Amino acid sequence: MGLPRDISRRAAAVRLVALDVDGTLTDGRLFIGPTGEAMKAFSVRDGFGLALLREAGVKLAVITARRSAIVEVRAAELKFDHVLQGVEDKAAALRESCTRFGLGTHQAAFMGDDWPDLGAMALAGLAASVADAPQQVRERAHWVSRAPAGRGAVREFAEFVLHAQDRFDAALARRTGAAP
């Protein structure tokens, strides 16, 4: 959708990262037992990438079509600022999140993996997707991970945003005790 310089400029403006869950934060598989959804697998590396974004002052939101207590637990662990579940119109939900935080949509990134995410991706200043998303979704993203969903794609995206904002070295220095 844009040239690399344009994509970096878009990432530098990001103050809110909103994510789909199934197929973005997870590998898209649902484990369903006789009483309903039993579990989802989340990457701790993705979680740490989100923690780095939060430390850099970026707001975090989940926007997902499904409802899941598991998502509530994970979002609370990662200290998400806004959790929207059972969402039919993800673009409207992204707009709501931007309004909540006093941001323009050009300051929002949305990372999704399938057709229901395309409206939010089109609205966001930075649209991101995962390596194993359908081609139609990857073609409409400004940025696509090398890693598949639920296996480091979100961490890769977080590092990309931090680099574009010149915050990556400082984040690493805080962990190593070295000056940035």
User: Helical content, roughly?
Assistant: 40-55%
Q: CATH superfamily assignment?
A: HAD superfamily/HAD-like
Globally, the shape reads: globular
Spatial strand sequence of the major β-sheet: 5-4-1-6-7-8
In whole angstroms, how far apart are the ends? 33 Å
The main sheet comes to: 6 strands, parallel
N-to-C order of helices and strands: HEEEHEHEHEHEHEHH
> Structural class, please?
alpha/beta
Estimate what percentage of residues fall within beta strands. Answer: 15-25%
CATH class: Alpha Beta
CATH architecture: 3-Layer(aba) Sandwich
- Residue stretches low in confidence (pLDDT < 50, at least 5 long) are none
> In the residues, how many domains can be counted?
1
Tally of alpha and pi helices = 8
Using only CA atoms, what is the Rg? Answer: 15 Å
Number-wise, the strands total: 8
Structure in a nutshell:
This protein is an alpha/beta fold. Helices cover 40% and strands 17% of the residues. It has helices at 4-12, 44-55, 69-77, 90-100, 118-123, 135-138, 153-164, 168-176; strands at residues 16-19, 31-33, 36-39, 59-63, 82-84, 108-112, 126-129, 143-144.
Please describe what this structure looks like.
The protein has 180 residues and is α/β, with parallel strands linked by helices. The protein has a single domain (4-169), classed as Rossmann fold (3-Layer(aba) Sandwich), CATH 3.40.50.1000. It has helices at residues 4-12, 44-55, 69-77, 90-100, 118-123, 135-138, 153-164, 168-176; strands at 16-19, 31-33, 36-39, 59-63, 82-84, 108-112, 126-129, 143-144. A 6-stranded parallel β-sheet has the order 5-4-1-6-7-8, with helices on both faces. Helix 1 (4-12) packs across helix 7 and helix 2 packs parallel to helix 7 (153-164). It starts with a helix and ends with a helix. 39% of the residues are buried. The model has no long low-confidence stretch (mean pLDDT 94).
